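This part of the workshop introduces the protein records we will be handling. As an example, a complete record with its sequence and its structure tokens follows.
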Amino acid sequence: MNLNTIKNRLQQILPFEASALILEEIALQSSYIPFNGVGEHLFRKGDSALGFYWILSGEAEIIIPGKRSIRLKAGEMAGLDSFIEDDPISFDIISSSAILDCLFIDRRCYNRMREHSEFNRQMNHMVMSCLRNYRGLLIPEEKVYS
């Protein structure tokens, strides 16, 4: 995938207008990773979270044994929670579509993204989304207080 295509995909998945310069910076500092088949592992339980995947197109799935899985679509991030906490990946994360295009964001790229206020706000939103998804699956309903 070329630089302009990555920039266009990023702009499509962002809930805000980002400058072409910022999009190019992210496209250049991240690594484009395509997955070509259902069931390919992005992460296996226990992997080190040296970065996370930002889904450009397609879908991935977080597999939680004994619970329903969590579907991730374009614009969402796989492994962000473990990356931020600097913990091993808690669950298998696999591709769930025939084509899955992702950017792999490492610590250097992530720190650079956080310097931009809109991306910082987006990262905070994604972390909260992870917490909402996991809380509903991992904490028994009778233990969740409103």
Notes: The first strand starts at residue 31 and ends at 35. The mean pLDDT is 86.
